Amino acid sequence: MRDSIAPTRCTVPMSVIHQFEQDPNAVRIQKLLIYVCRNRWESDSTRLDVASWRSLIEEVREKYSTLELLRSRLAHQIGTLNKSAEYALIGQIVLSVFERIYAQEATTEITIPKLDQDVNVSRIKKLLIYTCRKYWEANSYIIEQTATSELLNELMEQYSTFEEVRSGLNIVVKTLNKPAEYAVVAEIILREVEPIYGTKNSQPVVEQIERVDLFNVRQEILKYANPLKAKILLFSSVYYLFEFCSQDWSNLKLYSLDGLLRTVLTQAETIEQFEQLLNEKASYLREPEGYLEVVPILVRSLKSNYTQLRQNLLASLKTSSVADRTQASSTKPAL
Question: Which of 1, 2, 128, 286 is surrounded by the fewest CB atoms within 10 Å?
């Protein structure tokens, strides 16, 4: 019999593991996750080769209960690295994936009570057990004691997309003595798990994704603000506090204004968070008054369509896994 899965356990969909495995920066992602979890830098290629992505992702979730805690720790650890600018981009890849994991778990917490309170809860569990474990459970006591969260975890481990779940349930229902009745139960399950899989956003819509065009935003910034101060402020908000040393100036040249805007859009979920982040960083820069004056200009340039721009950007990141940036070599030693 399988070990029970605690309700709080992080369920790692295979799609997430595959995304990390197939990313061209997979090794650097591994190194960064290990550093964030264990506070040590792993450079042994043999250990990296045998490291389990699933275990590593679960370890991250156990240590950081919210996305904001993970974001904060990533920023801190990245700031200690030699190639902090490059690893900040790796951090963005990590955050874009974990954002989906945290959102999925939040949706699951809503879904479980709905299924448990349904009048068909016993049949729901029977169908889930049969679909996931390939046997029919008729013992009412075992059914009652089996946690819905455990069954949903197993379902999501075995079926990485909503369409796979639909297909799997339909196949199982057709083998039962009461297919019509259990077809209704299957629809109840599908209705409740659909938000977990984010079906509306999971279709291959690469061709439909609007280009994240920041031309008008950039023009307003150039018109009303000092573009260099805007870049320094955005750089400080995304990576580390700019200290005006020669290395900082070299790093700043690696990034375009558009690239910095796109990156900070992935970090701040709302325009209010964006404004708060910029104000906080501006106050720590040398001669902060000049940078605090830039903040309202940046906010105004993005305010009217901030949410839409961010959604388009996140959608494009899921297909490319690479932040927009100017390609250049770093002068610091490779990690």
Answer: 1
